[in-house]
Target: Protein SprT
Amino acid sequence: MLSQLFRSLKSASTAEYHQASEPQPEAAASEAQQAVLDAIELCYLKAEAALGHALKRPSVSFALRGRSAGTAHPTENRLRFNPVLLEQNLHTFTHEVVPHEICHLLCFQLHGKTRPHGKEWQSLMRRIYGLAPRTTHSMDISSVKPRTLPYQCGCGVVELSIRRHNKVMRGQAKYQCRRCGQLLSPQPS
Model:
């Protein structure tokens, strides 16, 4: 359904969207980022047709890190997307992630504060975009998986994130093994 709308409106100008979605990314958008910007505009056109009124476009950034594909910040009318996952999963972004995140913004605009994936959000996903209201993606995240370092306990080796490792090194935290309860210590290199 979204693919059909995307094809039918692809030739339409998105100049209005770019004017309304300030601030724009500072660097020139990659082809994948431009495809997401186009998908956002198409999703908003579809939402406006379904809801019967104009909607304010969000600001958009491609600076999200970690394992999340995208996040919506409803009180700021802002969308953030993970550029690494985007480049590897363009179709999933334009057809699933973008509508998912836009529904969070629409839900807030229409209903105020609600549960993030509550019945209002689920209803918008189905009604406007004809999509199953899934709360997580199934993309391969190996390229964005956080680096870990080996720590030792009575059970053997346990991997700690860089963030936790740095806290240990600064003396701000100590971590115990969940299985044996022993304090974790950095494994010698």
Notes: DSSP finds seven helices and six strands in the chain. Residues 60 and 79 are 5 Å apart (CA to CA). The first helix runs from residue 2 to 9.
